[in-house]
Amino acid sequence: LRHAAALAIGITRRATPLRHAAALAIGITRRATPLRHAAALAIGITRRGTPLRHAAALAIGITRRGTPLRHAAALAIGITRRATPLRHAAAAALLISFASSAVLYFRRENFVNLAYTAPLREIAVRIKAEASPRDVVLVDGYNADPEALRFYLNTVPLSNVIAETVPAARRAALGSQAVWVVRNTRDVSPGHLVSALEAAACQARAQSQTLYEPYQQWERLAIRIATGGPAPEYFYQLTVCR
User: Fold this and answer.
1) How does DSSP assign the chain, residue by residue?
2) CB 5 within 8 Å of CB 22
3) What digits encode the pLDDT tens for the residues 74-89?
4) Radius of gyration for the chain, computed over Cα atoms and rounded to the nearest angstrom
5) 67-73: long-range contacts at Cβ-Cβ below 8 A with a sequence spacing of 24 or more?
6) Per-residue pLDDT tens digits for 108-121
7) Are the C-beta atoms of 72 and 62 separated by less than 8 Å?
8) Entry pTM
9) Quick check: 157 and 137 in contact, CB under 8 A?
10) Of residues 194 and 35, which shows the higher confidence score?
């Protein structure tokens, strides 16, 4: 179909609405090619900066997969040739968005998903500095990141707490000098087994907690609405039982 349409476009001499429509059809129906490449082909065939071309350019930006929207929109603006007021306004908005996003990223602020700012490096530094060889490190395998913590701990062993590893983790905790529990404040494990293991491991021991990543008020409200229960004040916690 794309070859037939291309032939039809080549035969028509003037840039008629039919030509633009056919070019767009080629882009959309071009198989085994990402939509952005196909739409780019359609734009390349159309010569004049018509509204259709600008619309198609914007479509490329929005649908360009694997790229942040601000980058994709910038690509769409770059494809359009004329320096319209909308182009300047959009370019300024994109620059401001990119700069503010970069600053907040490195300051680890205003993340919707606090898992991306989990202080695993800081937790690992503390465990490596204070834990003894006889200590046990237990990590919530359902709502934390055991593999990332394992990477930061390097040679310090840890136990990834899931249903299958609970018996072994409980035995290791009973014979340990101290127990370190790294977990999310919201226990989503089956039957709250992570909380149950923490309680059993810390029984008859002095317990201390360090809380990380406080929730915003709107986030706590959203959690209460979604779960129908109380919302925690913090995202991550480190419990030490000696």
Assistant:
1) -HHHHHHHHHH--S--HHHHHHHHHHHHH-TTS-HHHHHHHHHHH--S--HHHHHHHHHHHHH-TTS-HHHHHHHHHHHS-S--HHHHHHHHHHHHHHHHHHHHHHHT-S-SSGGGG--HHHHHHHHHHH--TT-EEEEETTTS-HHHHHHHHTTS--EEESGGGHHHHHHHHHT-S-EEEEEESS--SGGGHHHHHHHHHTTTS-EEEEEEEEPPHHHHHHHHHHHSS---SEEEEEEEE-
2) yes
3) 555 555 555 578 878 8
4) 28
5) 70/94, 70/97, 70/98, 70/101
6) 555 556 566 788 99
7) yes
8) 0.56
9) yes
10) 194
For residue 186, CA distances in Å to 177, 189, 224 come to 27, 9, 12
Contacts of 176 (CB under 8 A, 6+ apart): 134, 135, 136
CB 63 within 8 A of CB 42: no
Q: How far is CA 37 from CA 27, 78, 82, 237, in A?
A: 8, 15, 22, 47
